[in-house]
Amino acid sequence: MLEEVMQKYNLPPVPACKIYHADMQTNPEQDVILKCINPEKITPEEEEVLKDAVTFYKEAFPALKAINLSVLSFEDAENLKKYLEAVFNFNLMVFNNIHFEVVFRISIVKDSFREKGKVRDPKFLRYPDLKIVQDSRLYNRANTCDTTVFYASFLENVALRETKPEKGQTIILSIWKNKTGKPFNSYPITNAKIKNEGIEKANKAFEETKTMNHPLFAEIMDLNLAFLASEFVKECPINNPNRLEYFYSAFFADRILSPLREDDPIADYDFIIYPSVAWKHREENIAMTTTALNNKMLLVQAKEFEVLETYYDQDLPTEVCPAKLRFIREANWFEKDLIIWDE
Fold this sequence. Notes:
Layout (H helix, E strand, L loop, with lengths): L1 H8 L18 H10 L6 H22 L8 H14 L8 E3 L3 E7 L5 E2 L2 E2 L10 H7 L13 E4 L2 H8 L6 E9 L5 E5 L8 H15 L3 H18 L14 H11 L13 E5 L8 E5 L1 H7 E14 L12 E13 L2 E4 L2
Parallel strand pairs: 7-8
Antiparallel strand pairs: 1-7, 2-6, 3-4, 5-9, 6-10, 8-9, 10-11, 11-12
Helix pairs in contact: 2-3, 3-8
């Protein structure tokens, strides 16, 4: 299967440094990287392993970018995923503790959400049911169709423009509070060559980290994170019926947000934080795990609106609402499975 994928898309073969040992626990690249992280001195032979990995990445990333994802079939994507799993077999751990009080989410109301004319179940304001995501076979920027995440923003207008509800649709703006009072463990998208305050801070921290590591390991980090960042911040028309333009960012997002082993000394990520493409990278969004949302967040307010006009094509400051809305109702009281609307 891998041979067919490599031939079809002109991808470089899996190098020896990525072939697992007989016990199937690790491969040579992972062994050397672990020594770099500890840190331990590596041998000239081990340096050659890292050089081989660098050479591979310099070939693989351009080859992957050359694939036209807009015409990629769902079946071919599943095969291509096997190649990615074979060659990108470790995660670069980049941590950033972020403290915030609230985040905002926009949910487009469907008729099926309503009971006696109103949305009454808070589940429709959280994240899509996993079965619905799986059946849809649709990808998003930070999740494949195998996972579901909670997308939100730190500003109302950012959340609205990211979701882009259409004229005539009904939406609910929900406000979620950090009930722990503690910072969240985030994976920041770094190494993107764009103007964004959060990215610039993350890049500065990343550059400092590189100076403390072996130059070859630093180059591996640089190549991997540059590819990941470029996919998260890219702006392109979505023409694929499965939204596979998001294939690479979604694949890596699934890996980043997957729970770690119970015996792992580091904590799971709560969310990925990445620049808002809809706001020309000036603001940021988060893709939060369902575990973090359910354990650390509290729904504190919901407002229902009708969308009267939209201004998504205009270059607006973030303090200006990108749509004209008509207020319908508000809720400030929630039980486990019930929204108590004020009216």
